[in-house]
Design a protein that fits this description.
Number of strands: 18
Strand order of the largest sheet: 2-9-8-4-6
Radius of gyration: 29 Å
CATH class of the largest domain: Mainly Beta
Number of helices: 1
Distance between the termini: 102 Å
Helix content: under 10%
Number of domains: 2
Structural class: mainly beta
């Protein structure tokens, strides 16, 4: 009888162990990787991230899917034994972004309590010159033979003066206030104002290009867009950042 009870206890223990046997995915450092402050010249950013199996059953990684083409994240193995880990080899391209930059990776696994998992990659991209509201000047909807005015603000985020060099623009009939040797003081801003008077119904497609004496902003381009009222409404729409009439 005692032997029977012992056997029953052993079988019951094995049953309970199998019932609660499962993999558990944990990532070193939590559910986000933060590079902190970076520069565009640091691109691409890289990191090796360890994915642990803290459970008591093999962990299978079915898919690692970055949310955009700027991120790659190959994994060195798809199955992780209890107590072991796999390494995610992350590469993040910064493009021309600035400020807080966040991208996500979705990890699908055999962890019943944590799949899919959303893993976050982030950094703060420091740029010497910031454009507000963006790197575009939009005249919006203009009127024939009436002058329109629009602008963008340039801010120097560094502790030294930045000098504008070699300013060019198109079309030639546009008037801009940005001149060669314009100074942007440390932590200061300047307005780039553009004026344009449409003489026909053609959409306005142009640009302002300039160079600077800062090693990280050797050149920059501001895109110009605008549409003339009652003109070609099938033309590419103007960028709706700002517009104004004088």
């Amino acid at each position: 009888m005692i032997r029977f009870l012992i056997l029953i206890s052993i079988f019951w223990a094995i049953f309970l162990a199998s019932l609660y046997s499962q993999p558990k995915l944990e990532i070193e450092g939590g559910k986000a990787y933060d590079w902190g402050d970076v520069k565009l010249s640091d691109s691409p950013l890289t990191a090796k991230i360890k994915i642990y199996n803290k459970g008591n059953e093999n962990l299978k990684i079915f898919k690692v899917k970055p949310a955009c083409g700027c991120t790659t994240a190959p994994l060195d193995k798809q199955e992780i034994e209890p107590g072991d880990y796999a390494t995610l080899d992350v590469t993040l391209n910064l493009g021309n972004h600035s400020g807080l930059f966040i991208r996500n990776i979705t990890i699908t696994s055999s962890d019943p309590d944590n799949s899919p998992m959303n893993y976050q990659l982030k950094c703060n991209i420091l740029v010497p010159i910031k454009f507000f509201p963006s790197q575009y000047i939009s005249f919006g909807m203009m009127e024939l033979n009436k002058e329109s005015v629009a602008k963008v603000v340039l801010t120097n985020s560094t502790d030294t003066t930045i000098t504008i060099k070699d300013v060019t623009f198109s079309p030639d009939s546009m008037i801009i206030n940005l001149k060669k040797d314009t100074l942007i003081p440390p932590k200061g801003s300047i307005d780039i104002e553009a004026k344009f008077t449409p003489k026909n119904f053609d959409p306005l497609i142009g640009w302002i290009r300039f160079r600077t004496d800062h090693e990280e902003v050797t050149s920059a381009e501001i895109t110009i867009r605008g549409i003339v009222k009652d003109g070609n409404l099938d033309a590419p729409p103007a960028l709706p950042h700002q517009s104004g009439k004088k």
